[in-house]
């Protein structure tokens, strides 16, 4: 028998070229058309808290049109009497909010997993735009202060905010917030709740609009307000009663100082 032949080795596979690596994304900082600006502490905190709010708090919104004719007339009278001091429409709104919260403590609350916290004091945060973001200094015990006191304190806090000199204490402890974009010509908007508060009021510009009075169409002043509410803490009827009382106070501003 013929001798067995040694098995022939299979030809070696041709070496494969290494897979091409995907091109790394160029960092935005290296893009000539993009400037990367590091976030300051205010914007970082705001981003974290507002993201937390929208993710965790189920928002609902109530809208209301307010007749601002009496409010503007009352403000003019106050400013004439207090000159050279001035009060703004927002000062009157903050005072009205504080008064309504005192009368409706079920809105002056915070939600936790185990409890609904009823705040015994009324501390109103006032959103202030600063060059690098947004801060919310707090007017403590706003329901116990006069409109002129609220105005003076708000201006002082806003000045500190723009100078970057607000203390942690001056930005802490709010139980409700007010955000007003009316001075920028914004008619209406919805604000994001500032946790752990249960609600925030967004205030639009005072607009010239025709209104019906005593069956006649006459020139009028209207202002839109929008209440954003954490549905875990308040139901719709509770929030609606609060907003109705707030509108009543704004339309009858003598009740604010009564």
From TrEMBL:
Residues 1-27 have a biased composition (Low complexity). One of its GO terms (cellular component) is pyruvate dehydrogenase complex. SUPFAM superfamilies: CoA-dependent acyltransferases (SSF52777). Signal peptide: none annotated. Keywords: Acyltransferase, Lipoyl, Transferase. Coiled coil: none annotated. Its cofactor is (R)-lipoate. Residues 33-256 form the 2-oxoacid dehydrogenase acyltransferase catalytic domain. Pfam families: 2-oxoacid_dh (PF00198). PANTHER family: DIHYDROLIPOAMIDE ACETYL/SUCCINYL-TRANSFERASE-RELATED, DIHYDROLIPOYLLYSINE-RESIDUE ACETYLTRANSFERASE COMPONENT OF PYRUVATE DEHYDROGENASE COMPLEX, MITOCHONDRIAL-RELATED. This is 2-oxo acid dehydrogenase subunit E2.
